[in-house]
Amino acid sequence: MAIIQDWKIRSTHARCEVSGDPFLDGDQFYTCIFDEPASDGFLRRDYSAAAWKKVRKKLDPAPFSFWKSTYKAPVRAAEDHRTADTSVEGMLRRFIDEDDPRTENARYILALMLERKKTLIPTDTKETETRTLLFYEHADNGDVFIVADPGLRLDEIESVQREVVDLLAEEDRRAAGELEAVHEASEEDAQKNEDEAHNDGQESAQPEEETVALPGHETADGLGFETTVDAGGELADEVDEHLESADTGEDPASPDDESQSERGVD
Fold it and tell me: How deeply is 6 buried, as exposed, middle or buried, from its count of CB atoms within 10 A (0-12, 13-18, 19+)?
């Protein structure tokens, strides 16, 4: 297989790859992740349960990973939750999108934190030539998160935890700074609008000066005088528990039995 370099989040199109029919709330379907050598990345395809029975033995190439899911129709509450959760999920999304090797350990820890919160559901684990890949599905919207397991030792946990805590604090400061900038911009706009309204009111209230020439007299303009008028002025314990269980050989949560029994293509 190709040397995987693309770890982007894979979102569902919420429709069957074969029929094109949209999934309805509560529909069961199969998510397949295919290795795509042309882009050194992954391709996601979703199949309805009926279509899966027809194509599962005919897929060529076989999916790199697949599992069974239940579709959840998008709801506003889920969208609001994802928008508000900038300190953990938002950071993980950004790190996966940036794919900076320096954040690989942090991505792993953040994924574990979201797994413990049941925001991310573990669906599969795959070994490649160079590393172990962890596949997660978002509990609300079905997005697939692909995270590499860096193989942390127990004696490395503390330093990585400190790194994540520092990153979370930096994220909070960044979000607070953006919020303050938006607030200041809003205040400046409001003040500007107030000043403009005040000036417009003064100009409309100021009577327009007229120069009247008396019979036999020249106007002020004719004498060269100016007649214009100025109108106015101007989570550390939970991570330890998870990693320690992993170090002792306990398996993480596995996908449902049907996907385990069907893993691989006949």
Answer: middle
